[in-house]
């Protein structure tokens, strides 16, 4: 019975957190850090911006 509960919890957690800003936080933090670099920061941050947009539209 405990194994079944564990499996159900493991499957429900991603469903509950889908589209959650908490999951996009690492992408947004990396993007902010990259944008501080002069001249190429915004270009270098483009992939992390896309990552955050996909996770939390």
From TrEMBL:
It comes from the Bacteria. InterPro entries: DUF6726. Pfam families: DUF6726. This is DUF6726 family protein. It comes from Undibacterium arcticum.
């Amino acid at each position: 019975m405990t194994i079944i509960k564990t499996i159900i919890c493991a499957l429900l957690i991603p469903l509950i957190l889908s589209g959650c800003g908490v999951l996009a936080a690492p992408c947004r933090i990396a993007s902010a850090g990259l944008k501080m670099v002069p001249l190429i920061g915004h270009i270098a941050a483009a992939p992390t911006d896309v990552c955050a947009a996909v996770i939390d539209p």
